[in-house]
# Entry
Amino acid sequence: MTFWLNGDFKEERTAIHIADRGFLLGDGVFETVLLVDGRPAFFSAHIRRMRAGAAALGIEAHIDEGDLAAAVTELARRNDAAHAKAWARLTLTRGVGPRGLAVVKGEWTPTLLVTVNRYAAPLDHGPAKVIVSKHCRNEHSLTARWKTLNYLDNILAKDEATVAGVDDAIMLNTARRVACASAANVFLVRGETIKTPPLEEGAMPGVVRAIVLEEAKKAGIEGKTAPVESNELSAAALFLTNSLIGLRAAAKRGGREPDEEASAVIEKLKSCYDAAMKMDLEAFEASR
# Structure
């Protein structure tokens, strides 16, 4: 597999420095981007979030959207993913520098890695089944506000779902309210209204989450960001969002599956999201 590392295309397996803080300490941020026929969806939004996350962590790195776009499309070509769905992973770490936890400005050489792989979407057997995880999401932590490499809580929540034989696990925050799923944002559907936890509750600032809220407004569907109590998960229809699945209906195990009215709202939002993606991909193609 060919990958891109700090401006160069490489194929050797041993490429990350043994003193890289991303490897040693999880000190960095990342983005996962859907590729359709070699074109990244909503790439500018992902780059904006990566830059903001890097700034929040104090990582001084030059993140050039044009260079990264070129790297992604070239990797799709080299890795036989230019004519299929694929995913790109952009990983930025503080890089290599002095030993220890202290961060001293100007003493780090950041690492920026891009990989691209073909994406086999999971088979759709109806709404995703979810449970509520025992692993908590700390809404007060900086790691809950950005896609950092500190993902252990999410990993454990996802493993909990796998062991339980379901698709995902919903994580509660320290106040025992809903934050997000292990790798997705959570929406509730009631009538013509959708609701999702605000960022202050520990929700990831998802790219798809933002687009869905924007498209809902255009479609005449009320979109609210408000705290979600855990007991609401059993009483409302649900759907999950992330960059690879888009929108997928969901139901808490033992809870309510989307009825006809809720399903119609979800399908309408899916259609709006697909149209927004089509426009974004066409704009990306036109800019090349």
